[in-house]
């Protein structure tokens, strides 16, 4: 034993192999689901800010006058010292706002500010909260369970059985819930079994399942019950594609109503066009009002530690194929004087709300916060902060799985 | 299950190749198997959530290292109330019988001393003397200046020397001590 390094090596030899890769992947996938947004919930915001008006490209303000709020979100989420009461099984609670995880506990925060502990079996399996806060979606192995928070009822949505992958979404008005599912065989999608989409009319409780061919994913549900489908992008691989293909599909008639292909290269800056942009999986195409798409292309920055560039969002009018606005979001690496090139990204998409786009902002070594991008002004403001005990946000009202 | 079960091989390959190293660092940072497992998992969750960007980065290893060390410090902050009642990690057992090998005794002394350092002091020790990083790279991993790394290293080594005078010979041989 000659040096401190030798001695440290000797101590390190006692380490076991902490193989938590599968658990980490499972949690990461569920966290990603928070970032897969109910894409069609933007109608109100767009009526104000985007749909009818061409907005010139300009740098949006950040943290302007006036505090942004989301009425059903608490200003601060604090993990109570004493475990919160369990979700009642004999009566309803107020509409749900957020589901967070603190350690191994999963907690529902309702819009009246109360907190309820969710069953341990649901930890890691909460998929989303409906836009009206009434329904909580939970993955239960081979199906999705919709728990009615206004009472004690529940709906079991046909998933696909064991060995199926699933993805789901709500319509902005909360009436429709849709699940995309595909059979998994040998750790990959079974090519012999078409994926399918199950839609649930939450008014009538009627379910309908239709096969859906092609390598597509569910990106949203319209208030009409039509679903939006886009090219499937791997959550774990980089793509160099600069275009998005999207279709609007009617599950009742099994007809495709519209098809779109959007190449966003022309809307990047000259400097950004010098490198081929990457669309990363958390960059979801967000169909806002049936004609507006939100994109977050990521342009790698060479010569720096990370590949991240900006969290900027492009809004595209599908009807005209034109860019309506670029929302400039803060550089996740900080300002030029304090730039930290080791930061990969600052903002994870949380939910699309009538008030704007809600992001989960993770800070290295610090607390998380929820920040709202006001689509009419371009301002990004903190609307809710969290105590450090909050490990991650499992679901936000309007967000989806 | 969720979309992507067929797409995560890149992440799996990356982690498989580094899991042993990450586990060793996690154990050195925490001194406790359970806490080390939590630390590895917390770091991997963050890496997996941004894997596409991480894998495209110039130096994904550096990013993973940074996540690990930040998780170590922030996890300690989260548990601070608890820490007031309990040590950061389980203190190592008292040194064994007198006939136990000298190396084992010194190892236990080091573990005990490491457990009494602050998380950041412990981190600089692991970064500088286990991972053999330069001051600049250690600073990048911790998100602090090189000056902070220098001072933290100086304080950490001084504290180690005070806590485990039996190891002074190892510490005194380090160039960093000559400050």
- Biggest sheet character of chain B: none
Average of pLDDT of chain B: 74
Total of DSSP H or I helical runs spanning 4+ residues of chain A? 4
Main sheet characteristics of chain A: 5 strands, mixed
Helix content of chain B: over 70%
Mean pLDDT of chain A: 74
Which descriptor suits the 3D outline of chain B? globular
Topology summary:
The complex is a heterodimer of chains A (401) and B (179).
Chain A: H1 4-12, H2 21-34, E1 36-37, H3 43-49, E2 76-77, E3 96-102, E4 105-110, E5 115-117, E6 126-129, E7 135-139, E8 143-148, E9 154-158, E10 164-170, E11 176-185, E12 188-189, E13 196-201, E14 206-211, E15 216-221, E16 227-231, E17 243-250, E18 255-263, H4 270-274, E19 286-287, E20 292-295, E21 313-317, E22 322-327, E23 347-353, E24 356-361, E25 369-373, E26 380-386, E27 392-396, E28 399-400
Parallel strand pairs in A: 2-26
Antiparallel strand pairs in A: 1-28, 3-4, 3-27, 4-5, 6-7, 7-8, 8-9, 10-11, 11-12, 11-13, 13-14, 15-16, 16-17, 17-18, 19-20, 20-21, 21-22, 23-24, 24-25, 25-26
Chain B: H1 9-30, H2 33-49, H3 51-56, H4 60-78, H5 80-85, H6 102-115, H7 119-130, H8 135-142, H9 146-163, H10 168-172
Helix pairs in contact in B: 1-2, 1-4, 1-7, 2-4, 7-8, 7-9, 8-9
